[in-house]
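Inverse folding, one chain.
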């Protein structure tokens, strides 16, 4: 390992000092969270979690930056829901479901390192809204909207029904409830056309714009970005008010 020292040493620094020097100079500093909100040790679907805090608050403890220094929190979410490994997943489309299998293939939902198949499902807005609260999201970035293009109808989870008939408008705290709830869906029409060349919001079909607007209205968080393909330039930017 000593042979690696000359290569690594230039990249090692007092990062707390480095970050604050940049902030004091009026520069922008971008922090990127790893994993996902519901893998958070304290606020995730325990015990199906990781050993750290992937939510936005983890920036404060992990990077040594106080909460008042954070001006924007962009929540990144797929246009549908996926999960890796075990854990509750109310809107899951089980393996063998043709729509779920299509989402996996079109979205290339396989682990980068392990190649393990991710579990697909319809977009769960109840979980998303709770995630925006846990992270105090100022805006959202929706990825993989193009993966939904072939579908004639799109279901969106807007609530849960417990096995005792109780309706939940929020994520139940207790895991014994989470594993038994059933999703309550609203159905929106699909757009059935290729959107990968869209450069601005007006280029999207009406149904695609309605889908994005539905997410924004439900979560009450502005959608700033929509990706319509895997390339970096396949990104539609939505200024506020559009």
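Residues assigned per position:
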């Amino acid at each position: 390992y000593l042979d690696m020292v000359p290569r690594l040493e230039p990249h090692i620094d007092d990062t707390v000092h480095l970050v604050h020097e940049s902030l004091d100079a009026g520069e922008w500093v971008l922090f990127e969270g790893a994993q996902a909100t519901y893998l958070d040790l304290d606020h995730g679907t325990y015990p199906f979690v990781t050993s750290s805090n992937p939510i936005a608050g983890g920036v404060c403890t992990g990077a040594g930056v106080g909460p008042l220094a954070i001006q924007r929190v962009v929540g990144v979410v797929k246009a549908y829901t996926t999960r890796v490994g075990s854990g509750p997943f109310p809107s899951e489309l089980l393996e063998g479901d043709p729509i779920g299998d299509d989402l996996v293939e079109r979205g290339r939902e396989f682990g980068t390192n392990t190649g393990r198949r991710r579990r697909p499902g319809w977009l769960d807005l109840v979980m998303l809204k709770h995630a925006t609260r846990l992270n105090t999201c100022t805006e959202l970035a929706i990825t993989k909207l193009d993966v939904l293009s072939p579908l004639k109808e799109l279901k969106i989870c807007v609530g849960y029904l417990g096995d005792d008939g109780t309706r939940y408008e929020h994520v139940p705290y207790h895991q014994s409830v989470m594993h038994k709830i059933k999703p309550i869906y609203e159905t929106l029409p699909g757009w059935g056309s290729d959107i990968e060349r869209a450069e601005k919001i007006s280029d999207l079909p009406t149904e695609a714009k309605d889908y994005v607007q539905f997410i924004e209205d439900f979560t009450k968080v502005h959608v700033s970005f929509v990706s319509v393909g895997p390339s970096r330039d396949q990104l539609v930017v939505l200024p506020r008010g559009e």
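The chain has seven helices and ten strands. The beta strands are 74-78, 81-83, 119-121, 123-124, 139-143, 153-161, 167-168, 182-189, 223-227, 235-237.
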